Amino acid sequence: MPTKYIFVTGGVTSSLGKGIVCASLGRLLEARGLRVTIQKFDPYINVDPGTMNPYEHGEVYVTDDGAETDLDLGHYERFLGISTTQANNVTTGRVYLEVITKERAGAYLGKTVQVVPHIIDQIKSWMLKLGETEEYDVILTEIGGTVGDIEGQPYLEAIRQLRYELGPSNITIVHLTLVPYLEAAGEVKTKPTQHSVKTMLSFGLQPDVLVCRTDRPLDQDVRRKLALFCNVEPGAVVASRDAESIYEVPLLLAEEGLDRIVIERMRIEEEHELQESDMSEWIDFLRKLKEPSGSVRVALVGKYVAHQDAYKSISESFILAGAAHGTHVDVKYVLSDDITADNVEEMLGDVSGILVAPGFGERGIEGKLEAVRFARETDIPFLGICLGMQCAVIEFARNVCGWSDAHSTEFDPETSQPVIDLMEEQKRIADMGGTMRLGAYDCYLMEGSLARKIYGTEDVRERHRHRYELNNVLRYKLLENGMSFTGINTARDLVEIVELTDKRWFVGVQFHPEYRSVVGKPHPLFSSFLEAAVDFAREKDQISKPRPRKTEKKLQLASVKV
Ligand code: GLN
What we know:
With 562 residues, the chain is of the alpha/beta class. Glutamine is lined by residues 358-360, 386-387, 410, 465-468.
C-alpha cells in the first residue's frame, strides 16, 4: 500500500490545538495497528527554533539525532511513543537554506531560481521524504500557522500539487477551525469556519474533514450547515471539545469517529488488516491521571516561568510520572530572579521537591544557586537538569569546597575555579545555530549509585543540548570533597550525572530526561524524584488530598467507547 498522507491545517485563530489533534489522531491510527509518524512544517524563517528565546516559541524540543525542533514534536513523541528526527520538522528557513545552498553549488544549471517551482519542489520532496523510507503506513503533516498567513502559502501550494500528483485517495486534508459560541446571540457561529474554508479554496484546497474546536457539543443542525457551506460530507464534521487535559483529546476524537473517517476516506481497510482500536492502556493512564489519591507540591525554578510553554516537556513529564504514581503533581513555578538568601525559605519552604531548570545566560543564576543551597541544606529532594546540574556543581564548589568565586565560564570567564567550562571543540565555534552538544549520547551508570538503581540498568542514552561541561581538571577535587559522579560518557570521559549520596535524593543530570517521557512510560528519573518528594511530604505531613472535582467532569471517560 502506498503511504497515506494526512495534512492538518488550521483556520480562524492560532492556539486551537493543532499539535494535539495531530498527536491524538496519530495515536488513534496507531491503536488500529498502523505504523504512523507525524511531521511539522513551520512557516517561519529561522532555520530551526534552536536560537529562539523560549518566550518566542516555547520550549525547544531535541530529538535523538540532535535536531532542535518545535515543541509539538514533544507531543507527537509522548502520545505515540515514537522517536522523531530532523526530517520530522522543517521550517521555511531550512527550505530556503537548502535551495540557496544548491543554487550556490550550481545545482540548478543556470535556471532562475524561484518560489515556483524550486521552493515548492523542495517542500514537496521533504513532505514525502519519510514516506520514502517505507517505514510508515500513514504520515500526518501539521502545517504551522493559520491559513491565509502570507508565509504559509507555499505549503498550501505544495499540498495542492501533491494531491494532484498522488491522487485524492492518498491524501486527506483535515482543517481545524474555531466554532465560537456568541453569548449575546445565544448560538454557535459557523461563519468564521466558512471564511476559513473559502481561504483554503482560494489556494485550490478543499478540506475533507473539518475538526471544529468548540466549548460545547455541536448539534446536528450546525454540523449540517457547516457541511453544506464548506462542501464536506456531513459525517466528516467533527467536534473537538475543550478538555480538562490534553490527554483526553484522543478519546474525545475517537468518540467523534475521526480515525474511522480518515480510514474510510483513504480506503486503508482495503489494503490493511486493521485491528480493533485498542486504547485500553491509554484509558488506564487517564483514569489514574484523573483520580489521583493525593497531591504533592514541587517547585520548578527557572527564568522563563511566565511563559506556560517554556518548560513544556518538564511539566508534561511531571503529569506522566504523577499519573503512573497516582499522585497529582502541583508544580509551583518559581522565577529564579526573585530568589534571594533572605527569602528562599519563604519561597521554597512549602514544597517537597525542587527542580532547577535548564537555561542559558546569567539572569537568575544567583537565585538558582540559592534554590540548590536550600535543597541541599534542608535535604529536600533535588533534581537539576542541564544548567540545573551545573548550578548544583557551582553551589557545591562555593559552599562545601569553600571556593567562593567558583562559577561557570559561561557567566564568569575570569573565575579562579571554573568548575563548569567550555569543551575544547566548543571554543572554536562562532556560529550559534545547531552547534551545541546535541542529541543522544551514551551514559554509563556507576555500580551502587542511585542512578543505576533508578534506571535498573548499566547503560543509558539520553539527549543533550548544551555547550558547557563539568570541568575534568577540577573533577577530582570535587570528588574529594564529597560529590559523586555516577553517570559518565566513557567515550569522552564527560560527567553526565552528579549525586550527593548523603542526601535523601540529590541528583543533577547534564542531559534532558524530560525529552524521553511517554504516556504510560514516564521517565524513571521523574518517577523516582516524585516518589522521593511524596516520601518527604509524608514525613513533613505535607501531602494533601487532591482538589475536589466537579462531579459532572468526573470521569466522562466512562462513556467513552473506542
Ligand atoms: N547554558 C548551559 C550550557 O550551555 C546549560 C544549557 C541547558 O541548560 N540546556 O551548557
